[in-house]
Specification:
The structure is a homodimer of 120-residue chains. Chain A has 120 residues and is of the alpha/beta class. The first copy, chain A, has one domain (5-119): Rossmann fold, CATH 3.40.50.1400. Chain A is built from four helices and four strands, in the order E-H-E-H-E-H-E-H. Chain A has a four-stranded parallel β-sheet, with helices on both faces. In chain A, helix 1 (20-32) links the parallel strand 1 (5-10) and strand 2. Chain A is globular, with a radius of gyration of 14 Å. Chains A and B meet through strand 1, helix 1 and helix 4 of A and strand 1, helix 1 and helix 4 of B.
Amino acid sequence: MSPDAVIVFAHGARDPEWAQPIERLAALIAERLPGTRVRCAYLELMQPDLATAVGVLVGEGARRIRIVPAFLAAGGHVKRDLPLAVEGLRRAHEGVELELRPPIGQSDAALAAIAAVFAE
Amino acid sequence: MSPDAVIVFAHGARDPEWAQPIERLAALIAERLPGTRVRCAYLELMQPDLATAVGVLVGEGARRIRIVPAFLAAGGHVKRDLPLAVEGLRRAHEGVELELRPPIGQSDAALAAIAAVFAE
């Protein structure tokens, strides 16, 4: 699907600086998808949470929302809790498509780019 | 420096599958640095820890070890604990160079590659 909104979903942390690369990632995605709203949402310790971010975007008129997990590896949060949360959000927002992407580490292209940076 | 060993330092998790993208990242770095030993080490819940990985590599003859944090964003572990741990390892292994790289999210090239995957 071609999304009309993207949510970069990250863990969150106490330190506000933690979110800088997440916000930068969101900005880089927005550059590649002109006209698409790109927002961040957090599992814990930062706001908004995923349900809030989805709610606001739906309120703004979004109907095809892509959720991208900014996690390198998939622990319980990403493997179990996130798909369940997205299922619940699908029931809460009938007529809205919610696409859940796999986390970063499942993309060999992304891992290869990271490997190139670290090998330099 | 051109390292003779690289340690991919990641968080760790209870689920053994969690480590798959970390191990894949290590393999991709090894492909780019032929002749360089590339190992993984973990902050918690998985083995080996960083001190063990450094110790084994030094025992095997490594003298220039690059530590690359497989973290997207830098929380307290990466910002404070990891530099302190590396300082301690430098004192423990005189004559061994330990280079500590910034985490993934500080590389715009890596973030751009991740953005491209998520925007597709």
